[in-house]
Amino acid sequence: MGARKMSILALFITLSVIGAAIKVPAILGSVALDSFPALLVPHFLVQDQVL
User: Fold this and answer.
1) In the chain, N or C terminus with fewer CB closer than 10 Å?
2) pLDDT tens across 5-45, in order?
């Protein structure tokens, strides 16, 4: 794994930890933002490969 991919992965892990600490009140409970970076990781890490 290259240095670029590792730094991007570390960035998204950090965003996930920060997002887990932020709670948004909703009708049925609180919405955590910790899964949002996981939805963006495939876009940045798998740009050159065909899925």
Assistant:
1) C
2) 888 788 888 888 887 787 777 777 666 667 777 777 777 77
Residue 28 in tokens: 């049925």
- Please choose, from the candidates 13, 32, 31, the residue with its C-alpha nearest in 3D space to the C-alpha of residue 21: 32
Give domain status of residue 18, yes or no. Answer: yes
Range of the structural domain that residue 17 is part of: 3-45
Number of domains in the chain: 1
Nearest to 13 by CA among 46, 45, 43, 35: 35
